[in-house]
Amino acid sequence: MKRTTIALILTACAVLTGSALNFSPIKKLNYAEQIIEGYYVDTVNTDAMVESAIVAMLKNLDPHSTYTNAEETRELTEPLQGNFSGIGIQFNMLTDTLYVIQTVAGGPSEKVGIVPGDRIIYAQDTLIAGVKKKTGDVMKLLRGRKGSTARVKVMRKGVPELIEFNIVRDDIPIYSVDAAYMAAPEVGYIRISRFAENTAKEVEQALRRLKKDGMKNLIIDLEDNGGGYLNAATDIADMFLRRGDLVVYTKGDKSRLSQYTTTSNGKYTDGRLVVMVNQYSASASEILSGAVQDQDRGIIVGRRTFGKGLVQRPFPFPDGSMIRLTIARYYTPSGRCIQKPYSAGKEEDYYSDITERYRHGEFSSADSIHLPDSLRYYTLRNMRPVYGGGGIMPDRFVAIDTTFYSDYYRDLVAKGAVNRFATKYIDENRATLKKQYPDENSFVGGFTVSDEMTDQLIKTGEAEGVKFNKEQFAVSEPTIRRIIKALIGRDLFEQSTYFRIANEGNPIYREALEIITNPDCYNSLLNP
Fold first, then answer.
1. Out of 37-51, 231-245, 445-459, which region has the weakest mean confidence (pLDDT)?
2. Number of helices (H) and strands (E), helices first, in the chain?
3. Residues 252, 325: contact at Cβ < 8 Å?
4. H or E stretch including 453?
5. Which of 169-178, 191-200, 391-400 shows the lowest per-residue confidence on average (mean pLDDT)?
6. pTM of the entire predicted model
């Protein structure tokens, strides 16, 4: 036995010695895999081992080069591709039961007669109510191949027995424009949640509707927008810039310089433009913000953005998994790379940067941000100073609002009490509310959250283990009332209604509205 082992070692050493000069890293990796698979004491899951090796290699590069398995890849790309196959409902899990909030207009569920307020008890003959099923597991039962059938049994208020529906699954759109409405006379507002395949088309449609309503000036809300497809950002920038304007350029050691310039005058080059951003606005959001700022087309309002200036290219594998590899850096028209510093292999430090910004007081005061002169650039028309090296600095800083915060409010939200109360209220009063408030405008202008409703919310919270605190409730009460109204408005009408109401408490929105409705203030920021 000893002789055999010694012989194997000597043979391996001889092979390695004889070919050391042409033993490339990839051959070394393959050789290591063969040794482990051939000689390891236990059975080896080769697929998992190779995936771990890929992940380990990418960790030594940058924080945005990643590997995803087939399921993770599908979950990652689905929102950006703009649709999935399913039954077409928006839902909440209310007291461990799937509660239908809305059906997609013209979608599969609406076609067969599913209505808001229905509770889905069975899906594919599987009980999903009262069994503490995970939301992800429920979604797997409802989603499926286009043309396949989802069998559901529904409990409907006023109907004694369960109603059975056979719903033929179809492509369901995923929208990236969360809201579009007139914020003030001649001022439109659009909120973009991601930059996906159809985002530019959605924005164009929203702009046409707003223009019919009298829009001359526009607020674009990119708060919390983590990015997406680069071309979606450049296509939207095209709408607001003039022919030949540079939007962004990219370059890397192994990728040639690529410039994205406008080929024609945009349809919306006139009128005031304000872009809302915060510390979670990243990637494509920063491309659009940087182009607007560097070309002196509009005003950026909010807080310094995330600072992601790296471009990823997807490399899919036949099994559905994928590597998203950083291949270039992108630069705003003035030449800024706004990628914040990072160290290879220290991903946790990279993403905790937001927490460190908060601790250093950056969210409360712009004076806490110190950028060296070496990172100073100038906008292309008005020669305003702008900075690279870590996100887009806004033209008008807005501090984070913590005046409404209390532990009591946090616990109500964390336990789902606010959402649960609003859902229950709309379920019990939908018909009355629809009759009293036939359209969004009448609801926004006329509905108020009563003391009786807040008393019921307090009881809902206590049932979830949230002890009432009178002092803390008083601190958070205006926000609590506003969010309840916004949630009810969303369920009665559409997602846009939620933001129309909730934005009243958003200091970045209020500042943006103040600037865009004041031409002197707007012009002084654009032409200091």
1. 37-51
2. 19, 21
3. no
4. helix 451-463
5. 169-178
6. 0.86
pLDDT of residue 268: 95
Distances (CA, A) of 127 to 149, 154, 163, 393, 420: 17, 11, 14, 51, 21
The predicted structure's pLDDT at residue 513: 98
Secondary structure of 405-438 in the HEC alphabet? CCHHHHHHHHCCHHHHHHHHHHHHHHHHHHHHCC
Q: Average pLDDT of the chain?
A: 88
Which residues are designated catalytic? Answer: 283, 294, 308
pLDDT over 90 (residue 143): no
CA distances from 157 to 117, 118, 120, 352 (A): 8, 7, 12, 47
User: What type of residue is 148?
Assistant: S
Length of the chain, please? Answer: 528
User: Which string of DSSP letters, residue by residue, matches 87-153?
Assistant: --EEEEEETTEEEEEEE-TTSHHHHHT--TT-EEEEETTEE-SSS---HHHHHHHH--STT-EEEEE
Residue 4: pLDDT band with limits 50, 70, 90: very low
Please tell me the distance from the alpha carbon of residue 327 to that of residue 496, in angstroms, as a whole number.
Answer: 37
Q: Which two tokens stand for residue 428?
A: 């019990």
Buried b vs exposed e over 183-206: b needs ≥16 C-beta within 10 Å?
A: beebbbbbbbbbbbbbbbebbeeb
Evaluated on CA atoms 217, 221, 222, 223, the torsion sign reads positive
Q: What does the CA dihedral 297, 250, 262, 212 come to, rounded to 10 degrees?
A: -60
In whole angstroms, give the CA distance from residue 160 to residue 34.
64
Q: What is the pLDDT of residue 112?
A: 84
Please state, in angstroms and as integers, the Cα–Cα distance from residue 229 to each residue in 1, 191, 232, following that order.
60, 17, 5
For residue 249, which phi and psi values (nearest 5 degrees)?
Answer: -135, 150
Percent of the chain at pLDDT > 90 equals 52
Predicted confidence (pLDDT) per residue in 387-424, tens digit: 988 899 999 999 999 899 899 999 998 888 898 899 88
Q: What is the pLDDT of residue 256?
A: 87
Does position 142 have pLDDT exceeding 90, yes or no?
no
Closest CA relative to residue 398, chosen from 464, 300, 280: 300
Alpha helix (H) ranges present in 128-238? 135-142, 199-212, 230-238
Whether 53 and 46 have beta carbons less than 8 Å apart is answered as no
What is the spatial distance between Cα 357 and Cα 497, in angstroms, rounded to a whole number? 32
Question: Got the DSSP string for 363-418?
Answer: TT-GGG----GGGEEE-TTT--EEE-SSSPPPSEE-----TT--HHHHHHHHTTHH
Per-residue tokens: 72:
């993770």
Helix axes 507-516, 519-526, angle to 10 degrees: 100
Q: Helix/strand/coil (H, E, C) string of 242-257?
A: CCCCEEEEEEECCEEE
If pLDDT is split at 50, 70 and 90, which confidence band does 44 have?
Answer: confident
